[in-house]
Every structure is written in structure tokens, then in C-alpha cells.
# Entry
Amino acid sequence: MSGRVSDTWERGDPYERYVGRWSRQIAPRFLSWLAVPQGRQWLDVGCGTEHCSPASVAGVEPSEGFLGSARQNLGGRAALHKGAADSLPLEDGAVDAVVSGLVLNFVPDARRALNEMRRVARDGGCIAAYVWDYAGKMELMRQFWDAAVELDPSAGKLDEGKRFPLCRPDALLQAFASAGLGRAEVTSIDIPTRFESFDDYWQPFLGGQGPAPAYAMSLDESQRARLRDRLRDRLPRNADGSIPLVARAWAVKA
# Structure
């Protein structure tokens, strides 16, 4: 392995091909589970709210690349701010609902981020998040890391399932409790992730964004080819060549 493997997300297009297309299927199910009444004011950190008929939506994002994608896709329907989850640029009690999709594992201090979410939420408001089940049923990543570690045991230290304790339901509940968010509840959200072919599965890992793609692109060509072939051998395959996997997210709300 060569180069530096980074968790940084900077560009929307590679993210969309890799995991965005699947997170967009999780988000509506997450929002339905929240059941926030219509006409509320939302702060959106990483997932859509268009299905909830909000009175207003504010979004916070540290990456200029992702802010640009959001501005292009939302067309002025949300007030977008450059900022971080652990230092939200909103006043105290500014919104009714604060939601965070696939973010908590990547902030330096999740407890601080949750305290910030609590600060900007009004009394009686909703604070919620979801994260991938990296250690279990987020199978497109689980298959990748299991194959990578078979070939390179040192890759295990980069595996999100080991690095991110908040990918487990008990850890999410404990994090909410430690931030003073009582009566939290957690649920799993599963979606099928059917890849049309092996290339449909493999090519997004060549985008270089996120831990697994960054690891793949840190390898030299022969090492990357070995990993590709190992994955081709171990992935389940339907008769038509498609690859049937499942993606699970854990969602928590208080």
C-alpha cells in the first residue's frame, strides 16, 4: 500500500456512484420513521427532507464540492451554510428538527456534534441521525474490506466496521444519552443494493473518495488487480450476472 488513505469527501459525483445512490433510498425511509409533522423548520446535515413538506430547510456542509452539488440539485430550496456538524452556524433553538445522515462517524467529536444539534433544536423538537452498519449488513463495504484484509491484513485498521464504534445500535443509544438526549430509540433500515454487473460494483471504488475507495486507489496496479479479482470470486452472483447485496443503516432519534 502506498500514499495516504483519507476519509475526506470533497466531490459529489464520485460519492453518488459509490454510496449516494443507496443513501438516497435510505433517506425517505428514515424520514418516514421520524414522522415529524408538516410545516416544521429543519436543519439538514446529510439527508433530504423534501418528503416532509417542511416550512424551511437549512443545510450545513464543510465541503465546497458538496455545497456546489447541493446548490445545483436544490435550486434555492434550502438555505445552505458552510460549516461543520460540531459547530453549527445557527442560533439556539432555531429549528424543530435536526437530522444528520451518514455524518456522525466522520466528525472528530460526535458528542460535541450531538450537543450542537441539541442546542439548535427547540424544546420538544426532534434530533435524529443514521449511519451505515459498517460492521454487518452494509454488504458492499463489508465484502470489500473482508477481501482486502484477506490479501493485506494491515488493511484491517482502515475498516470502518472496526474504526467507527457508532455503527452499532447500542453505541448510538449511548452517544445520544451522553449528550443528554433521553428516551432515544433505534431501528434498522434495510434496502436491496442490486448491481447490474461486477463492473457496476467495482468501478465506484476507483473514485477515490471515502475510506474504501481511497484504500483501493492507494494500491499499485497489480495489488488493485488482485483485490478486484478476489472480490469477483467472492461476491454472490445471479444467473444474469447481477450482484444481489443488502445495505443496512442504523437510525436513532430522540
Remarks:
- The first strand starts at residue 41 and ends at 45.
- Strands lie at 41-45, 56-61, 79-82, 95-101, 121-132, 185-195, 243-253.
- The CA atoms of residues 41 and 56 lie 5 Å apart.
- The chain has a mean pLDDT of 89.
